[in-house]
């Protein structure tokens, strides 16, 4: 039977990166069928892993040292191909970068994300894909804009300190020194989040608690973000606080849409286009995708669902690999998956499964090759 196999998984969070998953499955399949062309194309959903997926598909890695979520220097990277750059908020302003016992809901900043955008401009990018998700901050993107030249001033003319809490003291937003290169850049906001900036479904109320905010701090942050939205509107950017996606990444989506003119697109679609998925799908006989946990969330914008949708539409069978699968067979079938292979079925000990994920996936790859090739 002609045709290649395309392996396009997302990461197994806490265990393996997407490239690591893809290579392990590919290794197993090649052991059984060395005569079949097995290709890897790691994917992501616009959050953590977006840059590594772009690099794996041929984008150039550019290391950048930036300001972390609580002000410490951190090493991050962007991916560049021609005049397109991919920026990942999680690598500069991510919640996972902080000690769970020492979160900073009021003071965490998105400044490092702005520094990544500036690095993309330095590389000559005219299209900047901004992957958001997993942020530590609820600063409305104020830190990001500050790193790009905006000035946030208190009533006495002094600059505001970082963090969403400080926005309660904001008197004026000055965009006069905003990096002029942004005027000719197209920013794509890769996000599935459709929350507005403010209110009960906004950034502070929905996502603030997971970033360490207690109920009183949630109310303070929501009020501070309202003050921030008014300042942005007064600076001539209009009121987009109610736009879907404005609440993404603690309001970074708001700043991107209002000030950078970003266009929001589903993260998985953006990444699949970045890695040339449709081109690589052409002529395939089988697609393998997956992520750490196949569950109901998978079916709502996650990368494996996007892969399954595109592949099944093209008439190519799709099987999934996962650490665990919580979806019944009918739900899998309805979503376009022909089968699912869970490590939990091979190794019931979750800790060992995560620790030895690569080795177990090699065995899963061998099984897929025997059953599907």
From TrEMBL:
Entry's Gene Ontology molecular function annotations: glycerate kinase activity
Keyword Transferase: yes
Alphabetical list of Pfam families matching this protein: Gly_kinase (PF02595)
Keywords: Kinase, Transferase
Signal peptide extent: none
Xref: InterPro entries: Glyc_kinase_flavodox-like_fold, Glycerate_kinase, Glycerate_kinase_RE-like, Glycerate_kinase_sf
Record EC number: 2.7.1.31
Biological process according to GO: organic acid phosphorylation
Superkingdom in the source lineage: Bacteria
Family: Belongs to the glycerate kinase type-1 family.
Name the record gives this protein: Glycerate kinase
Source organism of the structure: Saccharopolyspora erythraea (strain ATCC 11635 / DSM 40517 / JCM 4748 / NBRC 13426 / NCIMB 8594 / NRRL 2338)
Primary gene name: glxK
């Amino acid at each position: 039977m002609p045709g290649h196999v395309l392996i396009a998984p997302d990461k197994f969070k806490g265990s393996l990166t997407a490239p690591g998953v893809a290579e392990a499955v590919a290794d197993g399949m090649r052991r059984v069928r060395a005569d079949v062309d097995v290709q890897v194309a790691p994917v992501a959903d616009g959050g953590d892993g977006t840059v590594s997926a772009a690099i794996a598909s041929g984008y150039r890695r550019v290391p950048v040292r930036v300001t972390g979520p609580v002000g410490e220097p951190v090493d991050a990277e962007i991916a560049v191909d021609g005049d397109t750059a991919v920026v990942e908020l999680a690598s500069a302003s991510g919640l996972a970068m902080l000690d769970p016992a020492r979160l900073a809901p009021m003071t965490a900043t998105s400044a490092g994300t702005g520094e990544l955008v500036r690095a993309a401009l330095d590389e000559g990018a005219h299209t900047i894909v901004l992957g958001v998700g997993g942020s530590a901050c609820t600063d409305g993107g104020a830190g990001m804009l500050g790193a790009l030249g905006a000035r946030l001033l208190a009533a006495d003319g002094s600059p505001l300190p970082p963090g969403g809490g400080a926005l309660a003291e904001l008197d004026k937003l000055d965009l006069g020194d905003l990096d002029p290169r942004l005027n000719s850049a197209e920013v794509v906001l890769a996000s599935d989040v459709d929350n507005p900036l403010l209110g009960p479904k906004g950034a502070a109320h929905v996502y603030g608690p997971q970033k360490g905010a207690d109920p009183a701090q949630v109310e303070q942050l929501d009020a501070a973000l309202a003050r921030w939205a008014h300042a942005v509107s007064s600076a001539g950017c209009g009121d987009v606080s109610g736009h879907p996606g404005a609440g993404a990444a603690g309001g970074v989506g708001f700043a991107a849409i209002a000030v950078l003119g970003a266009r929001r697109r589903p993260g998985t679609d953006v990444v699949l286009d970045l890695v040339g998925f449709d081109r690589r799908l052409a002529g395939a006989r089988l697609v393998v995708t997956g992520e750490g946990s196949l569950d109901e969330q998978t079916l709502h914008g996650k990368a494996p669902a996007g892969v399954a949708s595109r592949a099944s539409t093209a008439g190519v069978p799709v099987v999934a690999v996962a650490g665990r699968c919580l979806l019944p067979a009918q739900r899998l079938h309805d979503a376009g998956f022909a089968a699912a292979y869970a490590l939990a079925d091979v190794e019931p000990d979750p800790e060992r499964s995560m620790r030895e994920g690569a080795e177990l996936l090699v065995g899963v790859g061998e099984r897929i090759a025997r059953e599907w090739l």
